[in-house]
Amino acid sequence: METKPKLMRRRSAKSVITKTCEKCSAQVNLHLVSTTPEIYRGECEACGEKAQMTEGKSQSQKVIGYLRVSTQDQDLEKNKADILAWANSKGLGPVLWVEEKISGVKDWRKRELGKLVDTLNAGAWLITPEFSRLARSTLQILEILAKLKEKNVNVYVLKGGQHVNDSIESKVFLTMMGLFSEIERDLVSARTKEALRARQAAGVKLGRPKGPGKSKLDQYRPEIEALLKNGSTQRFVAKRYGCSEANLLNWLRKNTIDRTPSFPSIS
Predict the structure, then answer these.
(1) Same domain, 51 and 105
(2) Same domain (yes/no): 67, 167
(3) Cβ count within 10 A of residue 2
(4) Domain span at residue 46?
(5) pTM listed for this prediction
(6) Where are the beta strands (DSSP E) in 36-144?
(7) pLDDT tens string for the chain (267 positions)?
(8) What CATH number should be reported for the domain holding residue 72?
């Protein structure tokens, strides 16, 4: 008698599963948000870490909305609303906000953005309203994007709908950005040289001015001269005014101060 093969029934998805938080090792409840494929999402109550599991494979997925303004009176609420609308349309889950009010000219590594880039892992998202929010320099923007791409972080810029990932379009875009940054460096160099030539033509002397520079010892010059004339050693004077003997000697020479004592040396 011929028997028919048994059909394998698809396992029914659970509505809630539990996994260990990768950040603090606490137990996290993940809730089913999609069945095709099965996607579970949740948040650790102990540390706030976002987590996601897709068909049994877990991964941390941070979704960051980055906002920067250079003045205190700029409003961030519209930018927040736009970022939230786009993230919700893609089903990315909760958005964590990183805001800073600082000039984009400042090196991105010394801003909150630098700390953020260091903490993001593969699969995370960084969403920002426009490229100029990251930095004011094309070169700095390129450095940020290259670093995030190296870490496999998704970057999405609302203005222009630019999604920087591993696609061929992103590679072409980053190549063009590299070209623009090189052009920018050349333009800055050319403007600097032109400005220096113009100042020279106007009779301005360039470079460090000749002669002794300012020193903290200048204000004590009469006292130091009196001490040396009364026979105090250079070691005693240097210690008294908080500098090294070498610095004191250099200062004496630059200011052509007579170090010959009028009385026997005392310490």
Answers:
(1) no
(2) yes
(3) 3
(4) 14-60
(5) 0.49
(6) 38-43, 50-54, 57-59, 63-69, 96-101, 125-128
(7) 555 554 444 455 678 878 777 667 678 888 887 765 667 778 888 877 777 665 544 445 789 999 988 665 566 788 899 999 998 888 888 899 998 888 777 888 888 899 999 988 888 999 999 888 888 777 788 888 888 888 888 899 998 888 887 666 667 777 777 666 666 667 767 777 787 788 788 877 766 555 555 788 888 888 888 888 887 888 888 888 889 988 888 888 888 888 777 655 444
(8) 3.40.50.1390
